[in-house]
Automatic annotation (TrEMBL):
Gene Ontology MF terms: helicase activity
Keyword hit for Cell inner membrane: no
Protein name: DNA and RNA helicase
GO biological process: DNA repair
Domain PD-(D/E)XK endonuclease-like, residue spans: 7-229
UniProt-listed Pfam families: PDDEXK_1 (PF12705)
Organism annotation: Microcystis aeruginosa NIES-2549
UniProt-listed Gene3D superfamilies: 3.90.320.10
Length: 254
């Protein structure tokens, strides 16, 4: 393989969960359209991210708040609950929509942090979630967004591993803002590195077989136990494709 493919956390999550579904979405470009309710929620989330970004850049946000009372309530509640976010927007040691990349083998791993604080003794990643707080924080810890975001920051900075953390803020009404914080360490970094190399090695093999011999991506050995799409596929004979809003913006294979 000579091409360099750009991957984000969404690609890794789907590849680890269901390789055949990854093939359908990214190589064959098949997906289902989003329903109106999903599109509305996605639009609200985009507006909230834009609001926080403009605030960090020192740009006017009055017009955005005037158009959406719920946005104003959520922003006010978040800033009240999170002093680190509320204080000193636009300072040199913090940046909204901060992008970093790391090359591993044939892949350019790319992350975009909603907000990052780079202090003298620590670095903190913030991510805004515009849906209600998940019940199982362990699943969020295992999600490739958490793992990749911290891994890339560790690999592209000089901070000690135990000085890195990532905080998710769940801001959707009617609940008050809630946070989940994950602290990093050497053990987590080593485990993520091993799992990442394994996953990318699998992708190398799958792509080679698919491109050279038209061999479909295989199911995981324990697919019937852990894949949420397995039973639906077995019953229907087809892979249940994701809605378009679940697909990362960039398809690296087209």
């Amino acid at each position: 393989m000579s091409n360099i493919y750009r991957l984000a956390q969404g690609h890794l999550n789907l590849l680890e969960t269901c390789p055949p579904r990854f093939q359908k979405v990214y190589l064959e470009q098949l997906n289902t359209p989003a329903d109106p309710g999903q599109l509305q929620r996605q639009e609200w989330g985009s507006q909230f991210h834009l609001l926080l970004q403009q605030r960090e850049l020192g740009l006017p946000i009055t017009s955005l708040l005037r158009e959406n009372e719920q946005l104003e309530h959520c922003l006010t509640a978040l800033l009240k609950a999170a002093p680190a976010i509320a204080q000193n927007p636009g300072e040199a040691n913090r940046e909204a929509e901060h992008c970093r990349s790391l090359t591993v083998g044939n892949y350019l791993l790319t992350v975009i942090y909603d907000l990052i604080l780079l202090e003298s003794d620590r670095a903190v990643i913030f991510d805004w979630k515009t849906y209600l707080k998940p019940i199982d924080a362990d699943k969020l810890a295992k999600n490739w967004q958490t793992r990749l975001y911290l891994y890339v920051l560790a690999e592209t900075s000089a901070y000690p591993l135990d000085s890195l953390s990532m905080t998710y803020w769940f801001v959707q009404l009617p609940r008050s803002p809630e946070q989940i914080t994950f602290n990093y360490n050497r053990k987590l970094h080593q485990r993520t590195g091993r799992d990442l190399r394994r996953l990318l090695k699998d992708l190398d093999l799958y792509l080679s077989a698919y491109q050279n011999d038209l061999v479909d991506f295989p199911h995981r050995p324990d697919c019937q136990l852990h894949c949420p799409y397995y039973l639906r596929q077995e019953r229907s004979g087809q892979i249940d494709l994701p809605s378009i809003e679940d697909i990362p913006e960039i398809n690296p294979f087209v």
